[in-house]
Every structure is written in C-alpha cells, then in structure tokens.
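hey all, quick one before standup. I had two proteins in the batch that finished overnight and I want to keep them in one place so we stop losing track of which output belongs to which input. First protein below, input sequence then structure tokens straight from the run.
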Amino acid sequence: MKPVVIINFKAYEEAIGKNALKLAKICDYVAKKRNVEIMICVQASDIYQIAKNVKIKVLSQHVDYQYGKFTGCISPISIKENGAYGSLINHSEKPLDFETIEKTIKECKKVGLKIVACASNLDEAKKISNLKPEYIAFEVPELIGTGNSITKEKPESIKNFIKIVKGRSIPLCGAGISTKEDFKTALELGTKGILISSAITKSPNPKKALMDITSIF
C-alpha cells in the first residue's frame, strides 16, 4: 500500500468553509503529484462540499454512534451519505471512553465507514486494536502542535506500538510531525503513515509545506 498522510483540518479558521475547500483542493493536487495517499479530516459541515469536489478520501473529525433523540450528535449515516469515507475518533482533543469507542466502531462498520482511531498511550492502543478499526494513530498528547516529533521523542514507543497493532489495524503515528525527515523516520520505524495538522493547516504556504513533507517519494 502507498504511505498514508492524514491531514486533520481541526477547527482552524484557515481550514473551515471556503478555506477548507481551498485546502482540500491543494491536498488533492499533491496526492496526484506524489506517490502517497492523502486523506483529510474535516468538520462534518464541510464534508459534502469537499467530497463532491476532490478525489481524495474525506473523513469526519468525529462521529457518534447514537440515533434518535440525541440532538447535536453526528450520526454515521449522515456523514456516509454526505460523501465521507470514514471518521477520525478519540483524538486527544475529542477523547472518548472505551465503551463509546467500541460502540462507535461497531456502528460505523455497519454502514461501511472506515475508522481512524487515535491512541494516546500503548495500553489504549492495545485495547483499541482488539476492536480492529481500519487504522490506529499513535499520538502522544503533549507533543501535538509542538513541532517536537514523536519520531524523535518516542521512537521506542512507536516500535512497541507497531508490535501491538500488527495484523489488526494499519499503524500510523502523529504528534509534532512537521518535516519530511519526520515522515521518513515514521515509515522506517514501521508505521504506514502519519497524522498531521498544523504543519499544513497553519502554514503560510500549505501547498509548499505538503509538497516538501511528501518529497521523500
């Protein structure tokens, strides 16, 4: 499989509404130029307009498992019908308890949505791996957005993470990743890709930043 780059748009003003569509098109362009699969995590309200305008896979930043009298919930069917490939869940900025993670993965599988589940430590990664989401992203919360890459700060943890999820889910890593060297090291350590955000979304030149990071191919 091609190396994977998942870009989390979060709720940055640079990646909402019209700006989200503009950034998505940049990601779509880079995906065509590089031998890498790029997926993007956008706000649920932006899924439809983006999914119909790009060929790369679009993920929701969060999804709930409930249906019915649950005002404000983001249902799996709603994002599926609006063009989502799947959803990110359990990001450190939107953490879930294990029971909720289990129910969410189950409901998403029913409607054919893929899941990228985040894990903030090895114990959590082990528990989540038993649920067999399509991807698990190992992110140490204290490194997120710092520019201090997990590949430099926690390389042994990444190796242990790979052993835990092997054969169950596709392993990714994130937190502080911002350069092509970080990406290259992540792959050398055994992951199949990275989860990244501010290095792209907050860059004054997102296209250049993404082309640079993926220039190892």
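OK second protein, same deal, sequence then tokens:
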Amino acid sequence: MVFTQFRLGRLTNLVQSGERIFVTEQTGRIVSFPRNPDASAPTSFLDIRDRVSDSGNEEGLLGFVFDPEFDSNGHFFVYYSAASPRRSVISRFTATDSSGQSVADPDSELVVLQVPQPFSNHNGGQLAFGPDGMLYISLGDGGSGGDPNGNGQNKSTLLGSILRIDVSSPSAEKAYAVPADNPFVGSSSAKGEVWAYGLRNPLAFLL
C-alpha cells in the first residue's frame, strides 16, 4: 500500500464530511482529501487568505462547520479574524460541484456577524450546530491580560460568551435570527444572542 505524504501548517480544525476530510489552516485556507489511507495530495476547498488576518498568534481562520443541510444547500460557515478594524467575522459560504468534487466559491460569502475585537488574543472561535439546528459560536473576552474591559461579566457585549443564533432563514435586513428561547431575549441589559457568558477564552465546547 502506498501512502501519500503532504504538509499542512497551523491547523485549527479537522472535519469529516462523507468520504472526505477537511482541514483548516490558520492562514485562511481549507483543504480536503479522501479519508482512505492511500489518499492523494489535498485539494483546495476554500482560500480566503486575502481577507483573513493572522498577525496575532490567536488570530486567523479559527472555526468551520457544515450546515446540517449541506448536501442539499452547499452551505458552510467559518469564523475568521479580519483587520482594519480588528474584528471577528462569522460568514456563510456556498460550495458547488466541480468535476465531481465539491469546492467552495470565495465570492459567495454572506457575512452573518461581525464582532469588534480590542486585542489580538482570546478570540475563542469554535462553531457548531446543535441538535436543535441552531448555530453556536464561542467568543473570547477580547484579550489582553486580566480582561481589562470587563467583557466576561458583561451581558451587553457579545465577547466572553457562547452565542446561539438561527441561520436557517436570513432576511433582507439580517443574516440570522435570535431564537425566542435564548435566556436573555427581551432583556434591556443583555444581548439576545448570548447563550452563556462569563467565559475567558472558550476555544472549544461540547453540545
């Protein structure tokens, strides 16, 4: 049996869909390859290095998840860092079929949410769909030492939280909806998107 060797750098996610493995590189690229042991060299699935900032050690392409209906709608979501101004971006992209292999169109980006980031560290970055079909997003407290802005205990900011949003039916005004059963919906002192707060830097979570 022949094994193909290849090199990838600064990996942040590994996701399986069907018979293929998808890997995100912090610089802003997603590559895929067959999961069988004699896999060929990886092919590019999405390349957005032109819009991803990885100038900070904890910045870059941090999150990646397929839509639960990916097989029919081709949608998937990524979480990445951007610059000028510094911010975290959650976007939806659409994959199309090319010669029997799914590839993504970098021009299909629909920005779902952007969150200003005061510092380059503590970005969190995981994306996951729950069994309820909602998209969960982890955001760190904004960084620096000791959370100087107090974001972790501030429910009126999206930082330092895990968010829960509904991306199944975007409108012309907004790319997502806030689920009515989120814990702080209707509160004048909290963001409705917040599902859990008081977190320092939630790199990963389980649903």
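Flagging for whoever picks this up: The CA atoms of residues 122 and 157 lie 15 Å apart. The first strand starts at residue 11 and ends at 17.
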